[in-house]
């Protein structure tokens, strides 16, 4: 049931949409309207602000400080200091001494990382903060934090010295094959411009040695009101927030000798430029064909109309590339096409492909061929009409969800409006525009985009690939494109399958029994074939219904050899289409609809995941019905799926962190024959069997009487009941009663330590995994385990990052296997190889502090508040309810158990945490795996 206010709003919106096609076409040079729901303004000092009331989620506000200054503005001796200054914003301001800012925000429920973060790019620095609004003091303090960042970062010498190590560790994380290859590619890709040597992370020499005064210089020169915007979106009073901004930020003054904010361009690659880089640790071969040009700025109706034209073309081109990708002999495992901006001053249209091993030239040939094919023969009418249908449906969906737009997304949209100089248009205005202009776009206009692309002179070709002897020379790549330009090419054939997905409606079953749970707001139907359907109607999203289905069994029912032969069955079927429609034909048949369904088979279960707009629910149920009754798995689809997997994963065995992860997983698996390293998995692909895969899939879905289907979202029980009876209750059900086979293998006993030597960079990765038995059905034990891990993570962040400057981040991740009644607590971080022993000792020292009951209680209080706040928003999320109800069905548990977790957390004490730490963080029972560079290795720096 819709709340009445939402219902009336949507009725008014419907009238607006129905009237839209009759609107006169605005002049193409007229400016696009900025969303009228946003309060905008500019202070006398030049600072801009954007404020909007929005209640998704309720009781929250998203705050942003956008600074129109990034690494491209650094002097040579400042390379990396724009990013360094961003770090320092969290390490002391005039109001908040280090580390009080983070501690305060965590105490009010803000999570460091998801809710409190920042980023630095070439041209901007953006600070992001979410705060609750049910406390005026807390919200106003959040606005104060933005003011502190804008002009009151202290940049104390001592804090800078401590932070050097943290920034250096972030730099260290970024080292590897990609960074080494980018040193060759970027000067060409960025046209020899300043962007090529002003990467935001900077250089280690500057990070380690820059005088503190140079950080203060950057902050003084560029953090100034005429280059700043404040954004506040959330459950707030707009008038009051505007007054706060004016009061707090009016005192900001630019420096009297402020430098000019230079806008940097790049040189054209007239006639084409090529950059090829190889590395023995490269995970795959990436081929890029890029055409640079004028930057895309969507400020007028004409700009917006042209963006629709380009969107139609590139949407059709992406579908063509995807269609080729599904062929077994495709030279690439993945390909895409898109248009946008490379940087603010340069536009770029590009085709990219992940080439299969040894097929770089062929991948480039296909990219070039499809560009030429489109330019010679154009896009077909059918392709354009499907692209139009998808574009229109997307705009309609955005209007249906206009009241449910997330504050986080809106805040970033207004940040981009400030930085890019483009208005943020409301969903209603965009739909009206689309409905007016989309029908006026002709096929010739769409095809003109292809002609312009082919005629582009500023062309850049880049290849990054493993060093395996199969990489062509620059001349060879250029010759491929020359050959394509003169080749005989046939027009694209737009093959479609006529007819409905389901040729004839099946004989319907019935709802045998109905139960309602007023507390959970759910309705449970038992179907005539034995299956169960749980409905949770919500009004969180107007255009979203989520589906899951679960049934016991999975690959546990296969023996070890059969798992290798048939274990990937659901994935193969999912890539094969359904019924009379292969995957390509299915995509065409579903154009203009918002719907997806995917069959799944895991170790313990089989089932489905899916989603749809309410108007497309019948299609969703039809797809489920067909995946049960008419699955496809033809030889071409099967071979294509195997080839794609090999193409994407084949070279990743050479990546150091993959070797690290494989060693860790294999150690914890303790000889389990079903646990496979990447190298073993790739070898197993040769033993995959199409016939056994399809037979296993059919067996797993042959009887749905033990399936539980869960539907959450904008679903009306009376409207969906006939669809459930027709497409679900009609499925075969013979009373199957199964349970997964227990094939668990416990991790090794005692302390197991392993060192992996891989890679040439001075990088280390450390994983410490504590494990043991736990009562996985005990809600309180699970809650205490989560709290213990979170408290430890906060302790380690302060000790390893803030105090020692030894890591960029440290993760502490708890997990409970409810099938095996076992837990793991995984601690992982990256570091300087020379500091591994020091930092591991520090981890165990913090564990000892926790087990001794000497940890600071504010860490637990912060976790409890974060959980309380998370519950407030989770209860308004369809995905959360889907997870709760599906998990309860999977383990035959009460959904209320999951809903009660925050209440249990709220009652926890530090004694509970101490006792759990004693029980689970056993110094005589853990696995330690460390990744170090190969002995004697040196980077190609």
Automatic annotation (TrEMBL):
- Cofactor(s) of this protein: Zn(2+)
Annotated GO biological processes are: proteolysis
Q: Which domain of life is it from?
A: Bacteria
Q: Where is the Peptidase M16 C-terminal domain?
A: 212-389, 690-859
Ranges for domain Peptidase M16 N-terminal come to 53-171
Annotated GO MF terms: metal ion binding; metalloendopeptidase activity
Which terms are listed as keywords in the entry? Hydrolase, Metal-binding, Metalloprotease, Protease, Signal, Zinc
What is this protein identified as? Peptidase M16
């Amino acid at each position: 049931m819709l709340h009445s206010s939402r219902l009336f709003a949507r009725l008014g919106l419907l009238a607006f949409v129905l009237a839209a096609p009759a609107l006169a076409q605005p002049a193409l040079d007229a400016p696009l309207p900025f969303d009228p729901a946003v309060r905008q303004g500019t202070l006398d000092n030049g600072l801009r602000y954007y404020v909007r009331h929005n209640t998704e989620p309720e009781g929250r506000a998203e705050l942003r400080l956008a600074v129109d200054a990034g690494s491209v503005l650094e002097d040579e001796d400042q390379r990396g200091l724009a990013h360094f200054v961003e770090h320092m914003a969290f390490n002391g301001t005039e109001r908040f001494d280090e580390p009080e800012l983070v501690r305060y925000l965590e105490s009010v429920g803000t999570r460091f990382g998801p809710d409190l973060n920042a980023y630095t790019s070439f041209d901007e620095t953006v600070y992001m903060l979410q705060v609750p609004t049910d406390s005026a003091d807390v919200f106003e303090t959040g606005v104060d934090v933005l003011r502190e960042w804008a002009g009151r970062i202290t940049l104390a010498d001592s804090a800078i010295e401590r932070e050097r190590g943290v920034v250096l560790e972030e730099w260290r994380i970024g080292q590897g094959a990609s960074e080494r290859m980018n040193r060759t590619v970027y000067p060409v890709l960025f046209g020899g411009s300043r962007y090529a040597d002003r990467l935001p992370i900077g250089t280690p020499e500057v990070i380690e040695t820059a005088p503190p005064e140079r950080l203060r210089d950057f902050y003084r020169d560029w953090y100034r009101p005429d280059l700043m915007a404040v954004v506040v979106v959330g459950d707030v009073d707009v008038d009051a927030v505007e007054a706060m901004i004016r009061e707090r930020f009016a005192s900001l003054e630019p420096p009297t000798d402020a430098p000019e904010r230079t806008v940097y361009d790049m040189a054209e690659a007239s006639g084409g430029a090529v950059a090829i880089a190889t590395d023995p640790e490269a995970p795959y071969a990436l081929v890029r064909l890029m055409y640079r040009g004028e930057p895309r700025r969507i400020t007028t109706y004409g700009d917006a109309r042209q963006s629709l034209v380009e969107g139609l073309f590139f949407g059709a081109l992406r579908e063509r590339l995807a269609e080729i990708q599904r062929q077994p002999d495709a030279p690439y495992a993945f390909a895409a096409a898109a248009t946008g901006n490379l940087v603010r001053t340069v536009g770029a249209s590009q085709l990219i492909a992940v080439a299969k091993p040894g097929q770089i030239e062929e991948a480039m040939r296909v990219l070039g061929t499809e560009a030429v094919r489109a330019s010679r023969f154009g896009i077909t009418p059918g392709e354009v009409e499907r692209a139009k249908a998808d574009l229109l449906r997307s705009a309609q969906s955005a209007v249906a969800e206009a009241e449910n737009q997330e504050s986080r997304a809106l805040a970033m949209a207004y940040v981009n409006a400030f930085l890019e100089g483009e208005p943020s248009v409301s969903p209603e205005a965009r739909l009206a525009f689309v409905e007016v202009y989309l029908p006026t776009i002709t096929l010739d206009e769409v095809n003109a985009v292809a002609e312009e692309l082919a005629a582009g002179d500023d062309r850049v070709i880049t290849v990054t690939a493993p060093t395996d002897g199969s990489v062509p020379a620059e001349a060879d790549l250029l010759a491929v494109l020359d050959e394509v330009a003169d080749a005989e090419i046939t027009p694209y054939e737009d093959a479609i399958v006529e007819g409905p997905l389901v040729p004839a409606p099946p004989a319907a079953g019935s709802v045998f029994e109905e139960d309602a749970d007023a507390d959970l707001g759910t309705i449970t139907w038992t179907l005539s074939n034995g299956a169960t359907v749980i409905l949770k109607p919500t009004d969180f999203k107007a255009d979203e219904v989520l589906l899951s289905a679960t049934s016991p069994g999975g690959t546990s029912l296969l023996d070890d050899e059969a798992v290798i032969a048939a274990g990937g069955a659901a994935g193969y079927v999912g890539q094969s289409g359904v019924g009379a429609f292969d995957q390509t034909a299915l995509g065409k048949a579903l154009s203009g609809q918002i719907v997806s369904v995917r069959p799944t088979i895991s170790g313990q279960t089989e089932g489905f995941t899916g989603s749809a707009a309410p108007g497309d629910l019948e299609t969703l149920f039809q797809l489920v019905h067909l995946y049960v009754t008419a699955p496809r798995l033809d030889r071409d689809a099967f071979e294509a799926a195997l080839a794609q997997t090999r193409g994407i994963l084949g070279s990743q065995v050479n990546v150091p962190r993959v070797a690290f992860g494989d060693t860790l997983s294999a150690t914890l698996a303790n000889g389990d024959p079903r646990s496979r390293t990447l190298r073993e998995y790739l070898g197993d692909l040769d033993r995959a069997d199409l016939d056994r895969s399809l037979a296993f899939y059919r067996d797993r879905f042959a009887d749905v009487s033990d399936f539980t289907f869960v539907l959450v979202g904008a679903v009306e029980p009376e409207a969906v009941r006939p669809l459930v009876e027709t497409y679900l209750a009609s499925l075969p059900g013979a009373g199957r009663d199964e349970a997964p086979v227990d094939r668990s293998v416990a991790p090794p006993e005692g302390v197991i330590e392993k060192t992996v030597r891989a890679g040439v960079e001075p990088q280390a990765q450390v994983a410490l995994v504590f494990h043991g038995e736990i009562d996985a059905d005990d809600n309180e034990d699970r809650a205490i385990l989560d709290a213990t891990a979170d408290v430890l993570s906060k302790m380690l962040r302060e000790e390893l990052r803030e105090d020692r400057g030894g890591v960029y981040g440290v993760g502490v991740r708890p997990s409970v296997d409810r099938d095996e009644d076992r837990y793991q607590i995984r601690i992982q971080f990256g570091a300087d190889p020379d500091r591994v022993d020091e930092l591991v000792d520090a981890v165990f020292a913090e564990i000892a502090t926790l087990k001794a009951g000497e940890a600071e209680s504010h860490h637990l209080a912060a976790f409890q508040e974060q959980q309380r706040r998370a519950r407030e928003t989770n209860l308004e999320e369809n995905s959360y309810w889907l997870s709760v109800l599906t998990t309860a069905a999977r383990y035959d548990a009460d959904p209320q158990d999951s809903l009660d977790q925050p209440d249990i957390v709220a009652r926890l004490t530090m004694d509970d945490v101490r006792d759990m730490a004693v029980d689970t963080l056993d110094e005589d029972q853990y696995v330690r795996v460390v990744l170090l560079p190969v002995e004697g290795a040196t980077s190609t720096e």
